[in-house]
Design a protein that fits this description.
Distance between the termini: 61 Å
Number of domains: 1
Shape: elongated
Radius of gyration: 21 Å
Number of helices: 4
Helix content: 40-55%
Order of helices and strands: HHHH
Largest sheet: none
Number of strands: 0
Structural class: mainly alpha
Length: 86
């Protein structure tokens, strides 16, 4: 009778990321998110060139659209602010 062979899964090395994916500026990022992540109102207003909206739950993408700003460009600057806080 053949001996039973137990097959063990081979552990694979997972990629490690140094930056948190939780704090990535994306289309669904709100001003409340940015403030919660530690970015100051002054820094946000400096990047945007506008005062922050009264509703912190507003999407940054929507704010950019309403004010004629390029979200893709602003997103890069905002991400730099977020990365400085970490």
């Amino acid at each position: 009778m053949p001996a039973s062979v137990e097959v063990q899964p081979v552990p694979t090395e997972k990629e490690t990321h140094t930056e948190s994916t939780d704090r990535m500026v994306k289309g669904k990022t709100t001003f409340a998110d940015l403030l919660e992540w530690g970015v100051s109102e002054d820094a946000l207003e400096e990047v945007l060139g506008f005062p922050l909206p009264a509703a912190p739950g507003m999407l940054v993408r929507d704010f950019c659209s309403e004010n004629g700003l390029s979200f893709e460009t602003i997103k890069i600057d905002l991400q730099a602010l977020v990365d400085q806080v970490e």
